[in-house]
Amino acid sequence: MPKYVYDFTEGNKDLKDLLGGKGANLAEMTNLGLPVPPGFTITTEACRHYLEHGGVPDGLDTEIADQLARLEERMGKRLGQADDPLLVSVRSGAKFSMPGMMETVLNIGLNDESVQGLARQSGNERFAWDSYRRLIQMFGKTVLGIEGDLFEDALEAVKAAKGTEDDLDLDAGDLQKLVGTYKEIVRAHAGREFPGDPREQMDLAVKAVFDSWNAPRAVLYRRQERIPVDLGTAVNVCAMVFGNLGMDSGTGVAFTRDPGSGQQGVYGDYLSNAQGEDVVAGIRNTMPLQELESIDAPSYARLMEIMEILENHYRDLCDIEFTIERGKLWMLQTRVGKRTAGAAFRIAMQLADQGLIDLDEAVMRVTGGQLAQLMFPRFDDSAATRQIAKGMNASPGAAVGKVVFSSARAKELADRGEDVILVRRETNPDDLVGMIAAQGILTSRGGKTSHAAVVARGMGKTCVCGAEDLDVDVEAGRFTTHEGLVVAEGEVVSIDGSTGAVYLGEVPVVPSAVVEYFEGSGDLSDDLVQAVHRIMERADSVRRLGVRANADNAEDAARARRFGGQGIGLCRTEHMFLGDRRQLVEDLILAESAGERQAALDALEPLQRSDFIEIFTAMDGLPVTIRLIDPPLHEFLPNLTELSVKVALAGDDADPKDLRLLAAVKRLHEQNPMLGLRGVRLGLVIPGLFAMQVRAIAEAVVARRAAGGDPRAEIMIPLVGAVQELEAVRDEAVAILRANGIGPDGESPVLIGTMIEVPRAALTAGQIAEAAEFFSFGTNDLTQMTWGFSRDDVEASFFSRYLELGVFGVSPFESLDRDGVGRLVRIAAEEGRKTRPDLKLGICGEHGGDPDSVHFCHETGLDYVSCSPFRIPVARLEAGRAALTCGDSDTR
Ligand code: ADP
Ligand code: MG
Ligand code: MG
């Protein structure tokens, strides 16, 4: 039979799975010889049993009884003993800290008799009744499920009757009366008496803590924080120490460093004559921890000493709960403390400089997510603000601008140099122009994986989505808030993509020093920039994965380079067909003869060539993977409905060009374009299209070489599912390259490879590698096709339900699905390399900048990840962390 109860002396900090974080660290402190009140921990395993079977496991009751007996022996008094009661707290504590989410009951063991004993023993009647009323209050709320306000209101009423707002003005008599009132509240609302039997109190409290694991707010918190649902919580039973024994007692919280900035110093709050949560509950004004020194210098000195011991022991920032009972300091909790992103970087470097950790560990102490947070501009915290709505923090950053409700209007105002916020119910691919033009995007619908959110993150643009309180009226050009405030086009709002807050008016913004650093103009005397710099240098030196950029133009390419990109992993060519050039694509589609088609292609080619020349120039000496045109052609044509309406309205006067266009739109219309005529399929059925692109690439390479440059082109064929498709395109492409003297047989040839984004390609990778010099995993499509759902369709309709049900813990479009999609990637990598050992492997989906996916790519042995320029630093850092995690970093 498993052991379900551990004395604090039996555990240690590494047993968090079993003892929860609080229990494991209480044990650790106990074993360090720190003053922790004795107690024991009931394991998470017991909790899981309880939750699963609706009852405690066999043997638990006896184990608890045994441990309690030992505790009583050590303390020299029994739980609730009438003349001198042992009191305990029953405290929740799961593996991951869930602040305020779960329950704790203090002062267990008090009843009508033992309260008298406590009063006599302590010589403090007020204290005894204060403790008793606290027990009934916490027990009533937590264990009996009574509305907490009922107790709060009764307390307020007693204070009001006394004409005070300070609980310290209540005397023993007041508190004794309050106990009576509380008992009545229990009777009226729980349909039972407050239980006087100490052991019953304890058992009920233990079960209530177990049950609190499934309280709605705990469930919600876990979902948000991605904490697994089935861990359960441990329960700690801990002898009480009392901060409410008088002014020589008190309770406090402290950090060993500032969790906001990372600076060393004394950070914390203290409250005299108080218990438990008083210090954070705001019932009285707390004093800064430093002031404790003047009240109780010995305790203060001891606390400082213990904080140093803890920091040196955990080698990290710790947070602490302590209580002083009549001049004696007790430690009630510690853990490695949460911190802001900036503090994480600063603290990691400080600890490395102090010699507590080495540089590799400093790299491990920070995350790509934290780095990403440091890269967005922020609102000035000190500014006055008026919040008008709250949505989801979809893409961090701080954006200010005039609201506009259409993509066209966004572009128009932005072209005039105005800052705009694009407000939509939700966005779709047509809004791209507006999203690019806008400073930020605000939507009233859709979650963190909605189109707006995904695209905004990709662009590094601020986005608040799913602000459901907003009623967006696009036609009228205004939105209305929950409170009825109407905000019309042209009015200024500020949106905070890190918190989801929406403010009326302009909130001042401060730029990110970290981005300035990556841009090359950073201030290395700033300690945050310095920390980022040193950690990035180390990550770069240990990582094995290359990091490239997804970039379609020279500007992005140049930024990618500044940010440390080692080439372009995905240059999409379809953007090169938009804008003024759309006309030429229309001509291509409407061409009725080979001559007309060729004329259209000939007009496009020089434009493409000059695009490529610019990109090769920006990426000189580094590889540039160019994907030939991928989307279905109708994306370049007018909308079917709009065009039909236009033609219908014009009747007999319809423009003949419109009629031809309409016919083409209808001809190309597909039920399911994602699975239709696109990618390599398009290249094989529209003669000359791919050839034109390959020629433009070849000529750009030749031109750059002639100019003394070092272009490194790689041609990537999209959507291949069978090696035959690739061979057909490859033969034509090779001929064109050869004609330009850069074929595979020549010196420094242009490579030809394919995207692996159709499951069949992954499954036949051994064959496909015969015709491909590289693979790049297009994990957006690969995810869609593996799961059989399209991102744009499912994110709004059922993703939130799926996340709720735990079908996946995180959207497979955000983080690569290791089991399914990942398996295909592994198969393709292995079989591809069996055919061609020097096959280059990369990934170019959105996942290339996602920390967990970067780790997957490292583990799978890919050569590089490719992501949007703004994500490059994140990918570099995570690639370093992945190498350190796997123990196969480059320097070891
Ligand atoms: P949380 O996880 O919400 O911090 P805790 O279990 O730490 O909950 O307890 C709530 C409060 O009660 C904390 O302020 C804690 O320090 C205090 N507390 C818990 N156990 C004891 C005890 N045995 N003696 C005195 N105070 C305690
Ligand atoms: Mg606590
Ligand atoms: Mg694709």
Descriptive report:
Helices cover 46% and strands 17% of the residues. The strands form 6 sheets. The chain has an 8-stranded mixed beta sheet. Strands 24-25-26-27-28-29-30-31 form an 8-stranded parallel barrel, surrounded by 6 helices. The chain folds into 4 domains: 45-239, ATP-grasp fold, A domain (Dna Ligase, domain 1, 2-Layer Sandwich), CATH 3.30.1490.20; 250-336, 2-Layer Sandwich (D-amino Acid Aminotransferase, Chain A, domain 1), CATH 3.30.470; 376-510, Glucose Oxidase, domain 1; 548-576 and 599-632 and 687-886, Phosphoenolpyruvate-binding domains (TIM Barrel), CATH 3.20.20.60. The two termini are 44 Å apart. The model has no long low-confidence stretch (mean pLDDT 93). The chain has 36 helices and 31 strands. With 892 residues, it is an alpha/beta fold. One magnesium ion (MG) binds at residues 630, 718, 757, 778, 780-781.
Which key features would you list for this structure?
single chain; 892 residues; alpha/beta; Dna Ligase, domain 1; D-amino Acid Aminotransferase, Chain A, domain 1; Glucose Oxidase, domain 1; 4 domains; 8-stranded mixed β-sheet; 17% strand; binds magnesium ion
Proportion of β residues? Answer: 15-25%
Terminal CA distance reads: 44 Å
Biggest sheet features = 8 strands, mixed
CATH level-4 homologous superfamily of the largest domain: Phosphoenolpyruvate-binding domains
What small molecules are bound in this structure? Answer: adenosine-5'-diphosphate, magnesium ion
CATH topology-level fold name of the largest domain: TIM Barrel
Share of residues in helices: 40-55%
Number of helices, where a helix is a run of at least 4 consecutive DSSP H or I residues: 36
